[in-house]
Amino acid sequence: MSLRTEATDKELSEAAVDWLGRLPFLGTSEMSMLLRTTENRSKRVLSKLEGLGWCEWVSPASAELKVPRLYVLTAAAQERLTSAQHSVTLPVGRRETLARLARLETAAGINRFIAELATAAAADIEVSLVDARSLPWTASRASSWWPPEVEAYACLRWGPWVAPFCVVWDRADAPPIHRRKRVAAWYSYAQSQSWDIPSILIVCPSPREAEEWAQAVTNSADRRGCPLLSVFLSTTRAALADPMGANWVRVDDPAEAVLCDRLRWVPEETDLTPQEFNLGAGFSQLATAAMPLRNWAAAVGNDPNGVSRAERIAALSLTTDPLHKTMLEWVGHHALLSSSDLSTLMGVREPLAEKLLGGLVKFELAQSIPTPESAGALLARYVLTVGGLRLLAARDGVPTRRYVRYGVLAAPGGGKKSHRLETLVRQFEHTVGTNSFFVRLKRDVDAIGGRLLRWLNASEATRPFIWYGKGHWLRPDGFAEIELDGKVHRIFLEWDRGTIRCVEHLTQKFQRYSEYFALQPETAGRADLLIVTVTPRRESVLWNEVNGVFGGRSPSCVLTTIDSLVDRLGPLATIWRSSDSTRRVSWHDHGGA
Fold this sequence. Notes:
By secondary structure, the protein is α+β, with helices and mostly antiparallel strands. Helix 1 packs across helix 3 (about 40-50), helix 14 packs across helix 15 and helix 21 packs across helix 22.
């Protein structure tokens, strides 16, 4: 899989086509790592292949991808490769190209991981990489020899031993049930193969997703009464920094180990070195009658009639720019934001925010919601459409219905079991009030040199916990982390409009907070509970319930205020009532530090 440093242009070109057939949408940096040559020479090779009709490029419209161009084989080149015997295991063909356009962040992430793996293996004096490829994502199970729900395959050699493994690229917005279903599919496959399957490496966005994967793998084994699968976990940052380093953990052991110590090594029974594609004596000019992907995407974006859903999603992934996608995520995570809200959250001027919203509406990715007469204001507020939901679900590799039903976004089209968007719109004043608090919080934090690190909606902020052996859920209206003066503050928010008259409901809500906080160590990182209500009288009612529930434990983590004070002075002002002060205090100075 490696080249000599004195490789000729012909050898580099043949190897580049080989890698583009294995890893569609490679950047020049990744290609230079795979060819073991300079980036400038890699660019020249790709430019030559482009001139000969073998490859083309697209500009990734994603805030996650900082590269200007990603390269892929042209339709004519892919057709040439489909005659190869082993093409069934390669991600070539129209359907595969569309699938990767929709999941461009995953495709690029996989490619970068394999490029880093190839570089690390080339520097190792004992281990070599003998095979690596992105697997077909649209192939039927009947034609697949690999486990379902994996993205890539690779194989290392160490003397007479080989270690085949599959790679899974996780996305933060994928719902936990999606991870559980993928794991269940692996166990079913393993059982059908008498448990003789490759190891599986999962690259996770953060430790939180790694914990979900580990729990899913162990729970699935416990239910079946079978051994644990050979699944190993790492974070994206660690895996890309050193894929063969001590970054990999077992699902039942938090100790980190190097990749070679984790993988299952088996005797090499056949030569696993991949066959070279038969490209002939040289590169001839290919007939490229097909429209370049970037031009095709622009044409479909302007006139989507007559194209399939997969083509529409793939085209939108290129025609919507990074700011469009960032705004789409804000609208999906926090329904009923206005152009002014989005201007603050994205740090852009309001005219640009309005222009971006206009683009989302034009592409039918977002729509405005009529303001109820009771709300008074005529400001347009926006939510995801089914089209926007499909685009985000495809990006994260999750079936659309599962994405909305079990995920954290609010959008139509979730079926009978998902009414999150309808609830948020029905509770218009509550939803807008909650949004306004966090938007104002970001504005005020930015003004004094701080940062809003995270804002989670009600679904994202929900926390499960165990209290005396019984499971409970903490369900705040939102959660945020902010950084001020080098300190991180965390808050849960309850937006109380005074409409809940049932004392039992309030008691139960505060009881959950009391139990949850009792389980948390009283350290600087513990979150505070901020409650915003409508009148001082209602505030006193809430304090009666808080004090009754928390009992002898002084609820120093709980503060309350009035919505009019938030509107007039902002959430960072001295507007908060606490349990241990007769005057109002500043929340971030009183607690959370």
